[in-house]
Amino acid sequence: MTLDARGLPVTAHCDAELASIDWFTRRLARIDRGAEAILEDAKSFPGSPMIQLGAASFCLFGQTRGADAAAADYLAAAKPLLASATEREQHLYHALSLWAGKDHLGAVAAFEDITTKWPRDLLAVKIAEFIYYILGQQHEGPRFRAHMQRLADANADDPDFLATHAFAQELCGDVDAARQMAERALEIEPRNPWAHHCVAHIYLRRDEQHDGVRVLESFLPIWMSVGRVIHCHNAWHLGVAYVAQLDRARALETFAHHVWGITPELIVEQADAIALLWRIEMAGEPVMQYWVALADRAEAHVDERYMPFLDAHFAFALARAGRTSALEQLEARVDERAARNDAEAHRSWSPVGRALIKACAAYAKGDAKRAANLLDPVMHNVTVVGGSDAQVDLFRQTYFRSLLDCGRKSEAKAYWSAQTAGKTLSPLDQQWLRSAA
Ligand SMILES: [Fe+2]
83 is in which domain, residue-wise? Predict the structure, then answer.
């Protein structure tokens, strides 16, 4: 039996195929440059099931209809190879097919089954982590953490696994365990943007020494040399940290140099750019010059439904740019999605997503009262819409601002006091609490 660098069974006809699989797994795990080479390798090795499946998984991270279509082609290429493939490759095909079919609950269970059989399967770990994100990473935090704890002994000194396990700890609010694991990951491998990402999340919860911004700034040169997706997202975290410090100028500078306009076709960049600009505006004055370009990108997704988290961002951008008909179309499509009789409609789109998306559009249009009314019954369960804890903070901030802006001051103060309990209060938190007093 052929084994890859992690000791996992794999079908490989030559060393070059094995090298491709090992390279892809390691680059994907820390979101480093080079993971995209799997698409070229899929052309070089059409008879390798694992490379075809790797290419399918890479595309499925794209979160667009076009990326899904490309993934379907790779899955179709893998299918006839399965008869002579390993059991692990057959399981991976099944799990990826569920993911491609948008059965996220089924897919994540299938990836959990894979790591039960093969606890060192870092590719399955990384995909599961992403599907928890689609399902709401804070909402799924306990499940994510239990999954990582089950695999901890088998991956004890792996810096990429440690960075992922640390993130699961952070999502569950265990800052000390998260910090310890992230530091261990960075001791083993300092050039690890996913461990840096966990550090950024930790600082959002706790920053007693007020050194979060300085530490994140020190990582920025490394982020510029890694995968664009994590360069963008980690820079988004730095921008969020500047907003929390009320340093709007640096937040806008980070937005322009590191977050928006570099790979604007990537959905991660679109969502992070919308979210950062939205936060910058909530912390100060409107910034109008970017909304037209962001709304252009949002319009391209009006007929796609991925997760409510993304649609809330697109609705906000469309509303800020005054794209009335596109926004109406998006809201109608969201209503249709929420009315479907499937697990995700019942779980997220109908009970929370639909109201959240409309509330974000209302807030963007200046109707704070409608936004607050729409958000009142759904905020307790808002983590179900997708995104991480830090990303869902955007909606919590929007709810606070809506309450404040429509004159429900005491409720605004009570809400933000509860949200920041146990955290290091930022200058923005302090300003907001004062303005609600
Ligand atoms: Fe993040």
Answer: 1-135
Q: Ligand 1 centre and the CA of 238: distance in Å?
A: 10
Question: For 48-61, how does the pLDDT look when each residue is reduced to its tens digit (9 = 90+)?
Answer: 999 999 999 999 99
Give residue-wise pLDDT tens across range 26-43. Answer: 999 999 999 999 999 999
d(CA 36, CA 322): 36
Q: From the CA of 389, how far away is ligand 1's center (Å)?
A: 8
Residue 3 forms beta bridges with which residues? Answer: 9
Looking up residue 175, the CATH number of its domain turns out to be 1.25.40
Query: In this structure, which residues have their CB less than 5 angstroms from ion ligand 1?
Result: 388, 390
| Number of domains the chain contains | 2
**Whether residue 123 is found in the same domain as residue 141:** no
Q: Is 202 found in the same domain as 128? A: no
d(CA 152, CA 17): 28
Residue 274 is encoded by which pair of tokens?
């919308």
Residue 69 sits in the same domain as residue 93: yes
CA 401 / ligand 1 centre spacing (Å): 22
Distance of CA 361 from the midpoint of ligand 1 (Å): 23
Q: What's the gap in Å between 84 CA and the centre of ligand 1?
A: 40
Residue ranges of the chain whose pLDDT lies below 50: none
Q: Could you give the CA distance from residue 362 to residue 374 in angstroms, rounded to a whole number? A: 9
